[in-house]
Amino acid sequence: MLTYDQVQLFDRDGYVLVPDVFTPQEIEILVANVGGARTKKHEGNMPDAAGRSSKLSLWADIGDDVFGAVSASPRVVNNARILLREEVYHWHSKVMLKEPRVGGAWEWHQDYGYWYGDGCLYPRMISCMIALDAATRENGCLKVIPGSHLLGRFDHGRVGQQAGADQERVAAVAERLGVVYCEAPAGSALFFHGNTFHASEANLSDRPRRAYICCYNAFSNVPYGGHGHGRPEPIAVAPDDAILRFTTASEPTTAAR
C-alpha cells in the first residue's frame, strides 16, 4: 500500500514512483509472456514524429492470463483506488515495446487529452506503468512534467502517427515546471494522473525498454453515450501471488474479471 507521504506526492506532482512493487521472479514471468499470443494479437505500431517505430499491444479486458493477474493485482488496483479516492474499473492495459536502437519516442501528451473524446467528463483516470526492464534515459524512460495535472486538459492533435498536445505550449509548461526523467529498476511502478504530461525519447541503447501499463477510470466518470474502453464493472481483485501461477508463456483467454 502507498504511504501517506506517497499519496501527498501524487497529489502535488501528478505522479509517484514506487520501487519494488513486483519481484524479480514476477518480472521474469511477465517478460517471458511479452511475445505471447495476447501481445501478438493486439500489436500495433504508432511511429513518432521522426518515423521511428513505437510499438504497443492494447486490450480492454482483464483476461485469465498473467497480464490479467497484473491488471487485477491488489498492488495496482488498491493503490489506484487510494489515489483517486474512489472505486475504479479497468479501462485498458497495454504492453509498450521499445526495441534497442530503433524504438521510437512518445510525444508529449496527456492521456485524458484523447480519453476526453471517449466521453469521459472528468480526468478521474489513472495509469500504472510497470517497468519490465530497467528504465533509463538511454533506453527511453518515461519523462513527466511535475504538477502539470493541475493545468487542466490541453487540446490534442496528431504528432507523427500519435496523439500529442500543442508542442509549443508544452514547451512553455516544461520551462516553468521542469521535466523529470523517471529512471527506475525493473519491478517499479509509476502511478500517474490522467492529466499529467508525459513523453519518452527514442531508445538509442543496446537494451530493450519494455513496460506494462494498466489504466483505470473512476466509476463516477463512466463515459456518456456508451463510448470508452473496458466495462464499468467492479474488478475482482486477484490473489497477491497470482502472477506466480504462470511460469511459462501463457495463452490468454477472453474471460474478463
Summarize the structure.
The protein is 23% helix and 25% strand. The protein has helices at residues 4-13, 24-33, 37-42, 66-71, 74-84, 111-115, 167-177, and strands at residues 15-18, 43-45, 55-59, 88-98, 106-109, 125-131, 142-144, 156-159, 162-165, 180-181, 189-193, 198-200, 209-218.
Primary descriptors:
25% strand, globular, 257 residues, disordered C terminus, alpha+beta, 23% helix, seven-stranded antiparallel β-sheet, Phytyl_CoA_dOase-like, single chain, Jelly Rolls, 7 helices
Characterise this structure.
The protein has 257 residues and is of the alpha+beta class. It has one domain (4-245): Sandwich (Jelly Rolls). Helix content is 23%, strand content 25%. The chain has helices at 4-13, 24-33, 37-42, 66-71, 74-84, 111-115, 167-177, and strands at 15-18, 43-45, 55-59, 88-98, 106-109, 125-131, 142-144, 156-159, 162-165, 180-181, 189-193, 198-200, 209-218. The radius of gyration is 17 Å and the shape is globular. Residues 251-257 have low confidence and may be disordered. This is Phytanoyl-CoA dioxygenase family protein. InterPro entries: Phytyl_CoA_dOase-like. Keywords: Dioxygenase, Oxidoreductase. Its cofactor is Fe(2+).
What is the strand and helix layout of this fold?
Elements: H1 4-13, E1 15-18, H2 24-33, H3 37-42, E2 43-45, E3 55-59, H4 66-71, H5 74-84, E4 88-98, E5 106-109, H6 111-115, E6 125-131, E7 142-144, E8 156-159, E9 162-165, H7 167-177, E10 180-181, E11 189-193, E12 198-200, E13 209-218
Antiparallel strand pairs: 1-11, 2-3, 3-4, 4-13, 5-12, 6-11, 6-13, 7-10, 7-12, 8-9
GO molecular function: 2-oxoglutarate-dependent dioxygenase activity; iron ion binding
Cofactor: Fe(2+)
Protein name: Phytanoyl-CoA dioxygenase family protein
